[in-house]
Specification:
The protein is an alpha/beta fold. It has two domains: 143 residues, Rossmann fold; 111 residues, Rossmann fold. The chain contains twelve helices and ten strands. The strands form two sheets. It has a six-stranded parallel sheet, with helices on both faces. Strands 6-5-7-8 form a four-stranded parallel sheet, sandwiched between helices. Helix 10 links the parallel strand 7 and strand 8. Helix 5 packs across helix 7 and helix 9 crosses helix 10. It is globular. The structure holds D-glutamic acid. The site of D-glutamic acid has 17 residues, from helix 3.
């Protein structure tokens, strides 16, 4: 039984890979971090769609049985144009499960933090309104968070100051729920919770995505009964930072890593 393919522009999607490993321990993951072309969040829909197609093709060439688009930017900008029939395997994104969770958790006002491209796409606001018609949604782009996470500065005072600046309008508006609309942001979770205060529910769609993948594969009879191979992690730029962060996020030292070219 083949692996589940997962991709992101960098290390952020590893938060989704980790949730998949917890939920489906018999499955192996083939991860692609497109670190050579990161960030996606400042790029146009046309460019992100082109990268997304290449990434999906790469994973399919390696024989994956499903693809998880573990990048909100790619899910917002490119996923609507990736028709499942075209690829022949299930393709799951991260926006829908996160929006559904947020609509369930909120008492009225939802904040969304994401990359510039995801915010401009309006994908979260649209999906949250579909699941909770009367909810108010306010979205804020937080582009610096991706670089700060990739730099490994989760606990740095500079990151805390950046978070205070970005989140101020959401605090002033009194949002009760905050969607972490970029897969890098859960790595800042303690800081974001502290900045927003304990009364605000933070939504990280990783667990919800893992549940959806389990349901989809289960429905198709594609779940593995036992683990045959180790998970494998590919990246498109040879940097030690990816390797260090990947080990920290996945919580293990011995990772099977490979530098690949998907261009
Ligand atoms: N992790 C990606 C996302 O969820 C964004 C990072 C980037 O800008 O490339 O949107």
């Amino acid at each position: 039984m083949s692996a589940i393919g997962v991709f992101d522009s960098g290390v952020g999607g590893l938060t989704v890979a980790a949730a998949l490993e917890r939920r489906l321990p018999a499955e192996s993951i083939l991860y692609l971090g497109d670190t050579a072309r990161l960030p996606y969040g400042t790029k146009s829909a046309a460019t992100v769609s082109r990268y997304t197609r290449r990434n999906v093709s790469f994973l399919l060439e390696r024989g994956v049985k499903a693809v998880v688009v573990a990048c909100n930017t790619a899910s917002a900008l490119a996923l609507p144009y990736l028709h499942p029939d075209e690829w022949g395997v299930p393709v799951c994104g991260v926006i829908e499960p996160g929006a559904e969770q947020a609509a369930r958790a909120s008492r009225g006002r939802v904040g969304v933090i994401a990359t510039e491209s995801t915010v401009h796409s309006g994908a979260y606001a649209e999906a949250i309104h579909r699941h909770g018609a009367g909810l108010e949604v306010r979205s804020v782009a937080c582009p610096l968070f991706v670089s700060l996470v990739e730099e490994g500065w989760q606990d740095d005072p500079i990151t805390a100051e950046v978070a205070r600046r970005y989140l101020a309008p959401l605090r002033e508006e009194g949002v009760d729920t905050l969607v972490l609309g970029c897969t890098h942001y859960p790595l800042l979770r303690p800081l974001l919770q502290e900045t927003m205060g304990p009364g605000v529910a933070l939504i990280d769609s990783a667990e919800a995505v893992a549940a959806e993948v389990a349901a989809v594969l289960g429905g198709l009879g594609l779940l593995a009964a036992e683990r045959r191979e180790e998970s494998h992690f590919c990246f498109t730029d040879d940097n030690v930072r990816f390797q260090r962060l990947a080990r920290a996020i996945l919580g293990r030292e011995d990772l099977s890593l490979e530098l690949v070219d998907v261009s």
